[in-house]
Amino acid sequence: MSFVLESPAFANGAQIPRQYTCDGADQSPPLTWSQLPNGVKSLALIVEDPDAPSGTFIHWVIFNIPPSPPELPTGVPRQAILDNGARQGRNGFRRAGYGGPCPPPGPAHHYHFSMYALDTPLDLTPGATAAEVRSAMAGHVLSQAELVGTFGRSA
């Protein structure tokens, strides 16, 4: 069995519902995880769009997520430090928290929700970038899970 990341809002490879995009309420979707490896002390999540015209665009960076309860609810507040101790980094919109899909008109983009099971909390301040989180995770990733959603806007 391997680490699994899922959303009750959309299946892997399926379209992300409008409420989780800039065309809707722009709320973070609910996420759940299961089958964590032994020794997990914290989780980190990076959500990115590799199809963005200017290169990979970061939609969400959140780290030091407690492994339990095994979920992030809909609409995680856009604050630097959450009540559960998780810290939010800076996304491509230059703010903390989730920024939903908002692609230009054209083909659907793919949004990769990559979650990392870590053997330690990360010693980073809120507002860390995805690159800083990746650097701090080096040597501490026990397992990784990914969920991909799509979203496109017509012209």
State the gist of this model.
The protein is mainly beta and 155 residues long.
Features:
155 residues; mainly beta; three-stranded antiparallel sheet; 1 helix; 32% strand; globular
Number of domains: 1
* Total count of strands: 8
The name CATH uses for the topology is Phosphatidylethanolamine-binding Protein
As a percent range, the share of strand residues is: 25-35%
Question: What is the chain-wise order of helices and strands?
Answer: EEEEEEEHE
The spatial strand order of the largest sheet comes to 6-4-3-7-8
Structure overview:
The chain has a 5-stranded antiparallel sheet, with helices on one face. A 3-stranded antiparallel sheet has the order 1-2-5, with no helix packed on it. The protein has one helix spanning 130-137, and strands at residues 4-6, 31-34, 42-49, 57-65, 71-72, 87-88, 109-118, 141-151. It has 1 helix and 8 strands, in the order E-E-E-E-E-E-E-H-E. The chain has one domain (4-151): PEBP-like (Phosphatidylethanolamine-binding Protein, Alpha-Beta Complex), CATH 3.90.280. Strand 3 (42-49) and strand 4 (57-65) form a beta hairpin. With 155 residues, it is mainly beta.
Write the layout of secondary structure elements.
Elements lengths: L3 E3 L24 E4 L7 E8 L7 E9 L5 E2 L14 E2 L20 E10 L11 H8 L3 E11 L4
